[in-house]
Structures are given as structure tokens and as C-alpha cells.
Amino acid sequence: MNNKQKLILVTGATGLQGGAVARKLLQQGNHRVRILARNVYSIPAKVLVHNGAEAVEGNFDDLASLESAMQGVDAVFSMTNPDITDAGTEQKQGNALIQAALKKGVKQFVHTSVASAGTHADFPGWESNYWSKSYWLGKWEVEEAIRTAGFSSWTILKPAFMMDNFAHPKSNFAFPHLQQGEIKTARLPDTKLDLIAADDVAAFAAAAFDAPEKFNKKNIELASESLTMKEVAEILTNVTGERVTSVSLSPEEAEKEGLFPPMVRAQEWDNIVGYNVDIKSLKPYNIKLASFDEWAEKYKDEIKVNRV
């Protein structure tokens, strides 16, 4: 291996976005990849190691482990966990990662947040805490900490709703009725949801690591298309060959159907606010983004309709 290659530490590598980033970097082979994992012997971690990654054990609550993981690192892909408990956990995670990176001289920091973070004060009903202040403040405050930390290069990616939520295992929680051929949500029939694939978040992260100057100080909201749940259901029907229908419920009905209350609130937020990503603004980056149809075709074996 060429030791002059950039060494990139990927956090969240055993999860959705971090895993996609680690796989993308390993496939490209332009950089060395180190992954941070609570359990380096987990199956996802071992697969990445088999494909060329170095795994180090650590977690956001152990600053010493973060500093050890940062040793010799040139760049970091940062993925922090949402705070829905009002405990400030995301801010604590973000600050710990930032401080460890600064202490060890990391030059580049690429972070994934969420589209619309920073516009929270304009949400109707914001002061009532209907939209989970802890979630939105956690996302925004970590972003702000990164912007002001003093890294030579920083990039903040802000994806909209992940297409991967329609695939196993995410769909078990996000769309528990999909296995029975139904997408039940509190989204209105005409609500369009901005969508992005984890693979495309990874493509942007990899591009940022390849060209830090081009992506420096960029806040990039990500989506490839915007679809109603009916349009999503039609695509899933065509791709899987199994009939999928969309059902629009009231918030009260959605909760009675077993949907997690914070998820129902998020679906109401889609109706009233939404991500509103300017998809055309992404064209100058010349990164091919997958349509939902393309994503579904690629991952159709993981879309569980009438299957367990």
C-alpha cells in the first residue's frame, strides 16, 4: 500500500452512511481507510477489514479512544447520532470527535448532518417543541462547531430522507407494514419527499476527500428526486413484482397502527415543512445521483415485500 495515500478515519462505519463511505473509499483505492467501531469483531467491521480497512476500537464517550483512533489520520468522515432525549448527546459526540481530531492535527473534516438543519426557527410551531428541538438543535450545533473549529478543510453534507429506509433492515422500523405490501404513513397523498441514497452521500464524501479545495467550506444539501408515497409504492411494485400500495393516515391513526410517535411527527413535518432541497444546485459537482427506481433495482433483494 502506498503510505503517501491519505489516511481517512470513518466513523459510523458499521452503520448506513458510514458503511457506504467506507465501502466507496475501499472500492476506489485512492486512500487508506481506518474505521472506528465499538466492536471490531462485528460482522460489518470484519467485512470492511477483509476488504482492506483497518479497524480500531472506540466510541464517542471515550475521548482517549478517539484520540488513539486519530493518530496519523489526515481526514475524518463524521457521523453522529441524533439526540431525541434532550440530553445534548449529539453535541457531546460531535465535540468529542472535533476535539480529538484537532488535538491530533487532522486537516480535513467531512460531516453528514441533515437537510433543513439551521432553518428550525422558521418551522411553524417550533417554540412548542412539536418538531423535537433536541434533534434539530443537535444537528445544527454540531455543524456550527465544525465550521468554527479551525480545520484546514471542512465539508458538511446534508442528506434528505434516505432511500435505504425502504430496504431491510431499516424498513422494519421505518415502514413496518411494507412486508404486507403497504406503506402506511402520516404523509398526505400529495406530499413529496426528497430522497437520496446512502451510496450517493458516500460519493460526495469521497469526492470531497479527493478534492478538499473544491469542497472546502461547502454546506451541501443532498437529494436526487422528490416523490409522493404513491409514486414510491408504484416503483416498488414495478421493481419487486409484488403489489405495494400507499396508505395516508391521520397522525392518531398512524400511532394506532404501531408507528413510532417521533417518526409520525417527522411525517407531519414532511407535510408542513419538508427538506426542500434544491436538486438542480448539485449539477455542477458532476456526481451521478441515483433515482429511486435505480436505487430500488440495485437493492431489490433487500426490499422485503410479502417476504420475511
Short description:
The chain has 308 residues and is of the alpha/beta class. Helices cover 38% and strands 17% of the residues.
Question: Could you walk me through the main structural features you see in this protein, from its secondary elements to its overall organization?
Answer:
By secondary structure, the chain is of the alpha/beta class. It has a domain at 7-159: Rossmann fold, CATH 3.40.50.720. 38% of the residues lie in helices and 17% in strands. The chain is built from twelve helices and twelve strands. The protein has helices spanning 16-28, 43-50, 63-69, 89-103, 133-147, 170-174, 198-210, 212-215, 229-240, 251-256, 261-272, 292-298, and strands spanning 7-10, 32-37, 54-57, 75-79, 108-112, 153-159, 161-162, 182-185, 193-196, 218-222, 225-227, 245-248. The strands form three sheets. It has a seven-stranded parallel beta sheet, sandwiched between helices. A three-stranded mixed beta sheet has the order 7-9-11. α1 (16-28) links the parallel β1 (7-10) and β2.
Architecture blueprint of SSEs:
Elements: E1 7-10, H1 16-28, E2 32-37, H2 43-50, E3 54-57, H3 63-69, E4 75-79, H4 89-103, E5 108-112, H5 133-147, E6 153-159, E7 161-162, H6 170-174, E8 182-185, E9 193-196, H7 198-210, H8 212-215, E10 218-222, E11 225-227, H9 229-240, E12 245-248, H10 251-256, H11 261-272, H12 292-298
Parallel strand pairs: 1-2, 1-4, 2-3, 4-5, 5-6, 6-10, 7-9, 8-12
Antiparallel strand pairs: 9-11
Shape assignment: globular
Query: Can you summarize the main beta sheet?
Result: 7 strands, parallel
**What CATH architecture label of the domain at 7-159 applies?**
3-Layer(aba) Sandwich
CATH superfamily of the domain at 7-159: NAD(P)-binding Rossmann-like Domain
Would you tell me the overall average pLDDT?
Answer: 95
Q: Helical element count? A: 12
What amount of the residues lies in strands? 15-25%
Instruction: Give the fraction of residues assigned to helices.
Output: 25-40%
Question: Would you identify the regions where 5 or more consecutive residues have pLDDT less than 50?
Answer: none
Order of helices and strands: EHEHEHEHEHEEHEEHHEEHEHHH
The total of beta strands comes to 12
